[in-house]
Amino acid sequence: MEKSKKAMVLKRVQMPERAPGVRVTNFNEVALGYSPERAIQEASRCLQCKDSPCRRGCPVEVDIPAFVKCIKEGDFTGAIREIKKKNFLPAICGRVCPQENQCERFCVLGKKRDPLTIGGLERFAADHGRDKNPLDEPSKPKPTVKRVAVVGSGPAGLTVAGDLARVGHEVTLFEGLHKPGGVLVYGIPEFRLPKEIVEFEVDYVRQLGVEIKTNAVIGKLFTIDELFKRGYHAIFIGVGAGLPLFMGIPGENLDGVYSANEFLTRANLMKSYLFPEYDTPIKRGGRVAVVGGGNVAVDAARVALRLGADEVYLVYRRGEAEMPARAEEIRHAKEEGIIFEVLTLPVRLLGKNGWVCGMECVRVELGEPDESGRRRPIPIKGSEFALDVDVVVVAIGTRANPLLPSTTPGLELNERGYIVADEETGRTSREGVFAGGDIVTGAATVISAMGAGRKAARAIDEYLKK
Amino acid sequence: MFKIVKKEELTADVYLIELEAPDIARKAQPGQFIVLRIGERGERIPLTIADFDRAKGTISILFLVVGKSTRWLSDLRAGDHLVDVSGPLGKPSEIERVGTVLCAGGGVGIGAIHPIARAFREAGNRVIVVMGFRSKDLIVFEDEMRAVCDEFHICTDDGSRGFKGFVAQLVDKILKEDEVDLVYAIGPTMMMRTVCDTTRPHRIKTVVSLNPVMVDGTGMCGSCRVSVGGKTKFCCVDGPEFDGQQVDFDLLMARQKIYLEEEKLSMERYEAKGEGRRAKSERRVKDEKRKAEGECRKVKS
Ligand SMILES: Cc1cc2nc3c(=O)[nH]c(=O)nc-3n(C[C@H](O)[C@H](O)[C@H](O)COP(=O)(O)OP(=O)(O)OC[C@H]3O[C@@H](n4cnc5c(N)ncnc54)[C@H](O)[C@@H]3O)c2cc1C
Ligand SMILES: Cc1cc2nc3c(=O)[nH]c(=O)nc-3n(C[C@H](O)[C@H](O)[C@H](O)COP(=O)(O)OP(=O)(O)OC[C@H]3O[C@@H](n4cnc5c(N)ncnc54)[C@H](O)[C@@H]3O)c2cc1C
Ligand code: SF4
Ligand code: FES
């Protein structure tokens, strides 16, 4: 008896997943979430540590033991209330946060064996709140007659907008695309983050009183200065790091070569996986090579597979251990049959009648660490080889899109074009202008963008009181 | 939602639509474009702002039906709404006082060249307009263009009106007779390319407006990459206007063909399905009427 109880504490309650063979045929969500019984069982593993080290790993300081305790006691509504005090987007974070590097990394249980599945429990509580028990109407605060413009509706912008609306400011959220959500709608695929969840969370922000204006490309439709002239007292910039990088190798403009942003935007935002029901086309099938090793590359590879590719290669210039993608996603990709070509550097794309038909690569070995601290790939002489491909997706990172900064005089940028902002307040070189998320840090995570949004909201509220 | 306040069929398969979009109208400059989505399942398509009325709060687009989205757009009526219109996108034309500016427009490129010619004239330039069409039945915007230039030329491929030949040939003729400081050429890719070939020996700067396939129109996807002077540019944010003599037109033309198969499928489905059917039968009646009047000709630029 004693022994089996201990085993239960050490081992994770697994979250059910769709079988690889089934899931590659559609865009349905892969991880299926806990049942109430399983959630309670998993929650019961929590030791309710006094000093709760897990909280230190959470960028928005969710009271983890408190919400886990609620789940354990069957009070699922209490759990989601507890989380929502700190985290606006729990159904999203529960799915896409790299918990293994955050809260779960600090969990005491992890010292012996499996840390608590904090992300899975967060997701469970959030889904429960959504399905069973629509959250209470947000209470209407006293209006402050201060107006705030938030530019960009990714996690950073949504958090700032929500936080400021909650304390009574009048907030308008400007989004350049036709749908709010940022990377959550255009980048992260349906099978990892169903879009109806993003819509639900965006609606919640709307219910708080935030006015969302889509099709509003700031810098074009209005500049930051024009927004001030229109009566906004403070402005938050959360426009993300949306400019795709290419490799700069010959053949990159051939037909069939996509940036990951384009490939994923077509598939996710424009729903081209449902073409011709939806009008936006995308190339389907064939052999697809995705270049890169982060979440974006793995997402693109898994999308290509679901679009019916015969073979999908993930071409990465360092080793598998160096891949920045989440471990879980790498596992999923492998289960689904994606072929990993690591320690491989593309040198040239080959074309036939304007279409890409091959990718010339060279194998590399890892040398001394470079400025990012990761070991530098060095080509191995004579190891050249070519992959036959019909589609290439370049997912080697993004930079700041200069569209907004270039129309905002006096806004200080760093040498890579990101906005210089104070880490604690989001304050920029321009009076009344704050910034946060990927446009300040470079491509990072959903939760860090939210964290930056939260801090900026606090600072903006202070600023408006003056 | 963006309301259509006016729709007009200018000639076979060429339409002018005036849209209620006060914020865009207030900011629009010559050379800029919008990206629109007709309905919830629609794609994002770029169209040049052919005109804007800041007081009325409207913008106009002039388009040729080439596939499903433009066909669908042509089937809408005044009072209908588009779900999304984003703009003004792209860099405005660089309007300066340079002396004599030749503005050459072919086909629906006329829509784009119109506000540019007007702006150059307002800036104190002498403006020569050259308009080219397949034949006289397809001429659009003539009065509008005449109103914004000092000298007006027109050509048709079949000689049914004005100079017989292509825009580039007429431009060549004018350049041989006249002092021109700047050429603007906007129209089908082939026309822009041949105009650039014509102006090159004359060493006259020639600005063209490129139209690669786009998605967002804000520099986020790279679908619109073009090569100018050996460098890759994103047409939607770095352009759409570029120095035509530096443009790799072969690449542009190749990249415009990426989705040929899918575009064909989309169009066939639209024409076959109920959504397009009523409009289609209305069109057939109209086409027949036109044929009876002896002025029908199918355009495909
Ligand atoms: C494919 C992909 C997968 C990812 N997977 C994960 C993951 O699993 N876990 C994780 O934590 N993170 C992941 N990330 C990273 C994470 O999504 C980002 O770090 C996060 O979304 C950044 O948030 P943000 O609010 O700063 O900007 P974004 O989410 O980029 O949103 C910025 C918004 O601003 C809009 N905008 C831009 N310019 C303008 C303008 N001029 N005017 C108006 N609006 C404008 C954009 O259209 C966009 O909607 C992933 C990213 C990608 C691309
Ligand atoms: C900046 C910009 C401004 C534009 N302005 C105008 C305008 O003012 N008036 C206008 O009529 N069109 C304009 N276009 C072209 C217009 O966007 C396309 O004709 C439209 O997207 C076609 O959509 P569709 O679904 O009807 O046709 P599709 O089914 O997408 O295409 C059908 C046929 O048209 C060709 N085609 C598709 N896209 C383009 C394109 N971008 N350029 C040239 N040929 C294309 C295809 O190769 C195919 O043969 C512009 C394009 C850009 C990039
Ligand atoms: S560290 Fe782990 S066991 Fe301790 S309170 Fe946090 S989640 Fe529970
Ligand atoms: S259309 Fe996406 S970058 Fe130009």
Question: Which helices and strands occur, and which strands form pairs?
Answer:
The complex is a heterodimer of chains A (466) and B (301).
Chain A: H1 2-10, H2 20-23, H3 36-43, H4 53-56, H5 64-72, H6 76-84, H7 90-96, H8 103-106, H9 109-112, H10 118-131, E1 147-151, H11 155-166, E2 170-174, H12 183-186, H13 195-207, E3 211-213, H14 224-229, E4 234-237, E5 243-244, E6 257-259, H15 260-269, E7 287-291, H16 295-306, E8 311-315, H17 327-335, E9 339-341, E10 344-352, E11 355-369, E12 375-379, E13 385-388, E14 391-394, E15 398-399, E16 433-435, H18 438-441, H19 446-465
Helix pairs in contact in A: 3-5, 5-6, 5-10, 6-10, 7-10, 11-19, 15-16
Chain B: E1 2-11, E2 14-20, H1 22-27, E3 33-37, E4 45-48, E5 51-53, E6 58-64, H2 68-74, E7 81-82, E8 84-89, E9 100-106, H3 109-122, E10 126-133, H4 142-146, E11 151-156, E12 163-164, H5 167-177, E13 182-186, H6 189-199, E14 206-209, E15 225-228, E16 231-234, H7 235-238, E17 241-243, H8 249-255, H9 260-272, H10 274-292
Bound molecules: flavin-adenine dinucleotide (2 copies), iron/sulfur cluster and FE2/S2 (inorganic) cluster (FES).
Structure description:
- The complex is a heterodimer of chains A (466) and B (301).
- Chain A has helices spanning 2-10, 20-23, 36-43, 53-56, 64-72, 76-84, 90-96, 103-106, 109-112, 118-131, 155-166, 183-186, 195-207, 224-229, 260-269, 295-306, 327-335, 438-441, 446-465; strands spanning 147-151, 170-174, 211-213, 234-237, 243-244, 257-259, 287-291, 311-315, 339-341, 344-352, 355-369, 375-379, 385-388, 391-394, 398-399, 433-435.
- Chain A is of the alpha/beta class.
- In chain A, the strands form four sheets. Chain A has a five-stranded parallel sheet. A five-stranded parallel sheet of chain A has the order 6-14-7-8-9. In chain A, strands 10, 11, 12 and 13 form a four-stranded antiparallel sheet that branches.
- Chain A is globular, with a radius of gyration of 23 Å.
- Chain B is an alpha/beta fold.
- Chain B contains ten helices and 17 strands.
- The longest helix of chain B is centred in the C-terminal third of the chain and has 19 residues, at 274-292.
- The model of chain B is unreliable at 295-301 (pLDDT under 50).
- The complex binds flavin-adenine dinucleotide (FAD) (2 copies), iron/sulfur cluster and FE2/S2 (inorganic) cluster.
- One flavin-adenine dinucleotide is lined by residues 96-98, 151-157, 174-177, 182-183, 187-188, 216-219, 238-240, 242, 264, 295-296, 299, 326, 401, 403-404, 437-439, 443-447, 449 of chain A.
